[in-house]
């Protein structure tokens, strides 16, 4: 069905209703016609319209969907209803469980839905409903049809049929020959030693192994391959705005263009990716698989090499070569030499005295060019890799070569470092940046810059905005209304640029004075220099102390500015001095270190975090945890004192009320809650996020009896207040199991609110369910905990510290990609591929902190980059971020 046909139907129905006189007979007839047309459009041709307008066969809820499952599995359900049922089970957990149970002949709890009462419509009511249907259909028909209705161009041809290949129906079986056309819903089966290839209208190829069976459906822009059993290899063509799906009963694979294999067996499915990447949905969870990766839907199905999984294919040798070549290229890209660490720089001493932000990065041009060269060299010797690359580039290879060559050539002029400074003006506002770079060769650099700006911007005006000066002191600022000129000064081994000519004039004075400016004598400069002494990579530093000082006057002018100032001071925020980040490559891992220093460590945040110490709380977290945060504090009571002090400053009345309530109820936050606690705390998402997040809290408790008495007293007071409003409040449940007491705290008014906890070895373990609490105890007792996980220990640093002050660990590569990948589908092809690639490459990451002296240092030491984002992924695979488009857009601004 196309949009023109829908418009004609709607126009005709509207005209018929408009022209009918409102008498009982005519209105009733009009209603009949509308119902008939709507039913026909939806594919529900079996719906009848008996007297009284009672509609039979309508799908009202989950009970009706589940009643269709037996017919669907028997192949007796109409195509329209099959599409509705399949789509519904993808989104509804109970119905999906019912479908899986029916497949395995297991009984399932059936969801019941109360059916609406039937009534006889009066003539006016029938007319109103008919009119409403026309309007509603006009508003909703298009999006509904795009997702559910079986319309759109469909063509499938048997490109090859070797051996016994059949078209299977309920009562008939017919041989299928090469060249046969397949209709939607027609089942195709290969017998023993048979082989078939089906080609779709978009060019996608489906290669069927022996003893395999499938049928095809199309709903809007989605084409679905229903693999009933057996193995297939799919070479999915680029789908543009469409999507190709493979449904195997217990999983759903979604692609927009790649090569992959699906094996649907008795125990479950095995999905393997040969090229590109696919999105896999299984058991309500989504994950992204990349080339060379494989997953099974049942633990009893072993993982085997992808090349072995597709060894039956006619193109097995080709696939083997592609997989081997990609693995080799990825290994080479990871081994590309990164820029050396820098232990000194003369650019730092040339920065303005009032610099508040300093950033320096190494010259990455050689890294990018070398990554590109590796790919080109491998392609020249590997036909399979060359075919893959040409398909990925889709005609953009020449452009990509030009972009990389431009980067390489520009990098050949530069030295080892590029640095940027942002100063603060007398008004406390950020000034114009100053960019400095060391030069290995300045001859021809000006001409090169002018050529590239003209080339990538396509506009001579952009070139005119560049102002090259021979001597900043003798140059005059260009008269302009938009003030968007960029002044560039090239002298010997130095490149300098700034939108403000005064920046270059001051720089020229500093160089004339021996290259030692006023910034050299500042403590901020000395802190940055310390980073270079330790070996610098990517450096970012900020003088937060100066920013806080410069913004204090504005803060004090605001209403309650004095209160805010005092509160921030008590929290230790106004005592910050410097923030310094240094990221560099060490032994194939990306080492990221960020330091935050303070001028006062006696109160607030710098006084809370303890020096590195043991974290026994992490022994209760399982290795499968997705997110974990743990820390040790000096004294929980002191934290509470600081926070209550802030409350007294910001809201004295609230603090007074809190004190009065605490006194009246015989409770003291500091003495009854903070004092019984120890210094360790841990939080984790230790299991699935749905339907209820598997959160877990572990606290060190020095006085469990005191804390338990406090909790019981709190619940008692809460229930007293709830009774005043006619609510039941909270209820306790206590269970003795194996000599251990388990506590469950529930809301009697809101059933979803539940807290489960127990005490063990000086810790309180709380979670969303008792099963999670028991799992935590098992992890501790068996030693099978996060601390002994290979993924966790792989991120541990090789330094002189035995403990941490705080740790943050994530293994969310299987959780984040699904949501981001779905959102990325709405982006252009290049950025979309980049987002999906980045999220799918998010490796488990361990970040940690050390509180020492007047600073807190945060570090992460991960394979392939901070938070698992690989430099090779960002730099080595050209076109992943569409660098040419990015450069062109930036030049046009």
What would your notes on this structure say?
This protein has 893 residues and is an alpha+beta fold. Helix content is 38%, strand content 25%. It is built from 29 helices and 35 strands. The chain has a 19-stranded mixed beta sheet, sandwiched between helices. The two termini are 44 Å apart. 31% of the residues are buried. Mean pLDDT is 77; it is low at 37-56, 106-151, 816-821, 826-841 and 864-893.
Kindly list the characteristics that best describe this protein:
893 residues, alpha+beta, 19-stranded mixed sheet, 16-stranded mixed sheet, 29 helices, 35 strands, 38% helix, 25% strand, flat, disordered C terminus
Estimated structural class:
alpha+beta
- What is the general shape? flat
Distance separating the two termini:
44 Å
For the largest beta-sheet, the strand count, sense and barrel status come to: 19 strands, mixed
Strand content range: 25-35%
* Number of β-strand runs: 35
List low-pLDDT spans: 37-56, 106-151, 816-821, 826-841, 864-893
